[in-house]
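Please check this protein record:
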Amino acid sequence: MGRTHRVRSRIRKRRAESGADSDSDIFNELHRYLGRAGWRNESRLSVRTFQSTGRGLCSKQNLHPNDLLIRVPFHCLISLKTLEHDPDFNALFNSVENFPQKELSFQGLLAFYVIFHQHRAQSQHQTYMTTIPEFFTNPFFCAKQELHFLPDAILEKIVAQNQEIKAFYELLSKEFTSAVCECCSSPLFPNIFGLDQLKWAYFAVNSRCVYVDPKVVVGWVPNSYFLRLIKDEPKLALAPFIDLLNHSDSANTISQITSNEPFQYELYTQRGYSRYEQVFINYGELPNSKLLVEYGFYIPGNKHDFFEMALTDIELLMKSRNVVGHRNKFKFIRDHNLDQQMFIHRDEGPSHNLVVALYLLLVEESVFPNVLSQVAFGSSEHFESLIHDEIRTLVQLKLEEYEKFLKGLEDFTSRTESGEVVLGYLKECISYLSKFLCNY
């Protein structure tokens, strides 16, 4: 908790140093900063606080389908090109001989860059750094006591995130073991680049970035030093002001980078908005579980939502019915990835893989792979009617499990903000499962 407090204190200090005493001051300064860089607020966007989402953007004019939502000079975004043309950041890496190649994630590298500039007193990105939230509401930041009331599917993703962040931190701390900060002479690790700072920056990047075409960006810096270090494509860019646009499942936006200089990043809306109505961006057709883990929120009634199931859920169903599954069947299901994409949809019913897995484990008598293959990949239209009751029982067991999680989290009175978001997510899941049972 102390380390988290220090992260937030550092951000508050940066805001104070920038002369920004309130959110209004911070975003007015961001306007001026972008204006000096060539940005023109053509669609008259304004920062507002909305009841449903908190901070977001609206326009002071009506917007129509296909209207420009925002156009920002590309050099205002923090991308691979930014890192490549930053002499101080390059010098830090040049101080290390034979830095490992193809081992860094680009998201991690951007997070490292954020911490690097958050610390520097005279950073050219200081104005933008003050606009990044002090904390995030992803389940990753739940208190330890709250983790007891999180579903396994969410916990598994948190563990994976934690492993990725720790591995990245260990790699950097090993390579920069003797490095010191040129502006304060403190050791970089762990004094400046602590693990908690990296956790914060990792989610800052994850929630503040836009997608950019990596081929375009790489084309600008074809001999990039950092391109040799990263193991994935540089398809992310931190986007000042654009990152204030919230996601909606009903939004439809098109992004592009202009083909001629001066290069611009543009967003166009495919739906209209009345003036002062919140305008949205769309991250993609994402279910609430993805939105929660990656971005720290969920959407009530999300039209892209579905509810995932796991083999362990089917095993619990089998146990409740005193059914023993043969290992050949489980092996067949895993070997053919039938345990992937197992879900229920409120309107469309159970997925194909869920139906097949349930049929193989609860109805099919043969355990021989050739027979299982004929069953699994032959006509399966009649399977669902044969396991209708099993599907209902599976969903009912899941509903009871989530109700227990909800009760436990409600009884825990010292909830964090992340815990509050998870609480709402559990209620949304319970509502989703209940509606499925009513309709199925």
About this structure: The first helix runs from residue 2 to 17.
